[in-house]
Design brief:
- The protein is an alpha/beta fold.
- The chain folds into 3 domains: about 210 residues, no CATH class; about 100 residues, Ubiquitin-like (UB roll); about 80 residues, membrane protein fhac (Ubiquitin-like (UB roll), Roll), CATH 3.10.20.
- The strands form 4 sheets. A 4-stranded mixed sheet has the order 2-3-5-4, with helices on both faces. Strands 7, 8, 9 and 10 form a 4-stranded mixed sheet that branches.
- The longest helix has about 35 residues.
């Protein structure tokens, strides 16, 4: 839980920073183009929790190698921890507090967004059509609301406006409707609700709102409306909003439409910026997509520099043949959840185990300890790289060893079907399939547990021994359904000659 919060926070900051730098380098000034880019960033930011949990990862080994631990340094005591029976984790008090605070903030903003959405639909249903214009007494200034079929709603005094002013404001609001800015702004508010703790989410929502207004202003000027007259119309609308206190007299419903000073400066002093060409926009989109994907998928790991070469370990072992090597500490790298618990479980499992060679110790820890841990919890295709060993302190005449290993858990698999068949075709098994099935604790859709499969196979062998087949040999065959994350297990049994 804590790691997910940290990853999403850091990656969101990197997404915003990398995109801002890229837009500056590529000199993108057009508001509509920048709005499209930041909309893509907002969507990717919304997907960050899903991507960080289940999405593909790219290991970037750019961190320095593991720093050496001096022999005089303290060895962390292993806490009393019992291995769990499944992949579920109990939250610590800190994680529960963190989750509680997050949920409070999320629920408050989600409630506000929900009420605002409901009020928006009520505003649309309550609007009155007057001479082809939708009006509402709740509107102080024109607004564009609605998701898939946006509606422009004016205040009831729109007839008092001069025709040029009305046409300019109508053009501005129709551009909002054409661009579906109200829908995009709703997603920006949803992103702010999910990431309410992150300043980037609040900044992104304000930035998208400002860029949408600027893009619509540019559309008004591009259609030939006078810049000063349009600016005066915006000032008059701002005065009306200031007198009433809000653009909409509806509780819990606030619509964007600010940034007046910046907008007036760009309308009068700068004017509309030239639109970006389609070719250059494609280049910008591709560059931003590559950069954002790298930020979202990249995980930083340490460089693979072995601190203690194999020959040095072998030499020390040969020079001091009486020295025993024991597991002093374990470091798991990669995008691995709950790595602290995995470390403690394996450290507890390896207490009292002694080896004559550090490399043999590391190989056993990785294969029997780390990899089996993941395979017993559904991660059947878990990959572990070659371990790196480092000598720590000598205690009670035993050499403590730090084992570092990078792990890629992969997808979690569940049991699909479990079937049995004779090793030779067209022959029936001596024991009914239902009886063989009872030897396995795993049931369909259970998390695939390699240890449970081995235990079931041993029970099948013992069952065959009692039936007069002491040499019966069950061989597992696995069928993978990667799309559904299922493993179909077929147990092929060679019964061998019957012995009465």
């Amino acid at each position: 839980m804590e790691r997910l919060f940290l990853e999403c926070t850091v990656r969101a900051f990197l997404l915003i920073s990398a995109t801002a730098i890229l837009l500056y380098i590529m000199r993108v000034k057009d508001a509509a183009a920048k709005h499209r880019v930041w909309t893509g960033v907002m969507v990717l930011m919304l997907l960050l929790p899903v991507w960080a949990t289940w999405g593909p990862k790219v290991s970037l080994r750019i961190l320095p190698p593991l720093s050496p631990v001096t022999a005089s340094g303290p060895i962390e005591r292993i806490r009393d921890l019992q291995p769990s029976d499944g992949p579920s984790e109990r939250f610590s008090n800190w994680e529960l507090s963190l989750l509680s605070v997050y949920l409070i903030g999320f629920c408050v903003l989600a409630l506000r967004l929900t009420i605002g959405t409901i009020q928006t639909h009520r505003l649309i249903r309550g609007a009155v059509l007057q001479d082809g214009v939708q009006t509402s007494p709740l509107c102080t200034s024109p607004v564009t609301v609605g998701f898939f079929r946006p509606v422009v709603i004016f205040s009831e005094n729109w007839r008092e406006w001069e025709p040029p002013r009305f046409k300019a404001i109508l053009t501005h609001e129709e551009e909002h409707a054409r661009r579906h800015d109200s829908l995009l702004q709703w997603f920006a508010l949803l992103n702010r609700t999910v990431f309410w703790f992150h300043p980037a989410a609040w900044w992104l929502e304000r930035t998208l709102s400002g860029l949408a207004e600027e893009a619509c202003d540019n559309a008004v000027l591009a259609r030939g409306h006078n810049a000063r007259e349009y600016a005066e119309s915006l000032l008059e609308l701002a005065r009306s909003v200031s007198r009433s206190g809000a653009r909409l007299n509806v509780v819990w419903m606030a619509l964007p439409g600010g940034f007046l000073r910046q907008r007036l400066h760009k309308i009068i002093d700068i004017g509309p910026r030239p639109r970006i060409s389609g070719t250059w926009m494609v280049c910008v989109a591709v560059a931003c997509a590559i950069t954002c994907t790298m930020v979202a998928a990249g995980t930083l790991n340490h460089a693979e520099t072995k601190i203690l070469p194999t020959n040095q370990t072998a030499f020390q072992s040969a020079a001091q043949p009486s020295t025993k090597f024991v597991l002093g500490d374990l470091k798991i790298e990669g995008d691995v959840p709950n790595r602290d618990k995995i470390r403690e479980v394996i450290l507890l499992q390896w207490q009292g185990k002694e080896y004559n060679d550090a490399n043999e110790l590391a190989a056993k820890v990785v294969e029997i300890g780390v990899r089996s841990y993941f395979q017993d919890r559904g991660y059947f295709k878990a990959m572990a790289q070659d371990p790196v060993t480092q000598l720590l302190a000598v205690r009670d005449g035993k050499q403590q060893v730090l084992v570092s290993v990078a792990v890629t858990p992969g997808a979690e698999y569940r049991l699909g079907t479990l079937s049995f068949r004779f090793a030779e075709a067209d022959q029936a098994l001596s024991i009914p399939t239902a009886t063989l099935r009872e030897q396995f604790n795993l049931r369909e859709n259970d998390v695939f547990n390699v240890a449970e499969v081995r235990a079931g196979m041993e029970k099948v062998k013992e069952l065959y021994k009692t039936r007069g087949f002491p040499e019966a040999l069950p061989e597992p065959q696995f069928g993978f359904d990667d799309a559904a994350h299922r493993i179909n297990l077929i147990l092929q049994i060679e019964e061998k000659p019957h012995k009465p």
